[in-house]
Specification:
about 170 residues; alpha+beta; 3 domains; five-stranded antiparallel sheet; 7 strands
């Protein structure tokens, strides 16, 4: 638009003038007149810059490529650059508490997984919980594991088939 429409250039120049607060306008307006500018997409990330566009999710890469091609069609140079994210690191996903569990024979004669005794979870010893990985559920009775679990707001323990576990015996 800036390349082909005078009205777009005029609007852009006015935006710059409004934001420059009396600073040197010529240095900012001259590139618009001479069409000596480039669109740079700044991508803020903590990932390795050498991986370039592989740092972006697939559809973000596709969209970026599409927009850069459109800019190229209207003879507007473009580039992208990674900017190091210096903001404080986020906590990420909560780390679930690893506990020791044991494969037991339940009241109905079925295999259950329950917290092992001696872990300050005595109120849960007789309760099985959902979501244990299949290798744990199919282990012989008496087998112990260290398993990542979470406690719900209702005080129920659960795990997930993809969470880490370690066989202890």
């Amino acid at each position: 638009m800036i390349e082909v429409e005078e009205e777009s250039r005029t609007k852009l120049k006015q935006l710059l003038i409004d934001r420059l607060n009396g600073n040197d306008q010529d240095a900012y307006l001259a590139p618009i007149e001479t069409r000596d500018f480039k669109v740079v997409f700044g991508i803020i990330t903590y990932k390795d810059k050498r991986r370039r566009s592989k740092n972006l999710p697939l559809f973000s890469r596709i969209n970026l490529m599409k927009v850069m091609r459109q800019l190229d069609l209207v003879k507007t140079p473009s580039a992208f650059a990674f900017i190091e994210d210096r903001s404080p690191k986020k906590g990420g996903h909560p780390k679930y508490q690893p506990i020791m569990v044991e494969v037991c024979l339940g009241d109905a004669g079925r295999t259950e997984v329950r917290p092992a005794a001696g872990q300050r979870l005595d109120g849960y010893i007789n309760k099985s919980f959902r979501g244990c990985p299949k290798p744990i559920r199919e282990s012989p009775i008496g087998t112990r594991f260290k398993l990542a679990v979470k406690m719900s707001d209702k005080g129920e323990l659960s795990s997930h088939h993809s969470w880490p576990f370690e066989r202890l015996n």
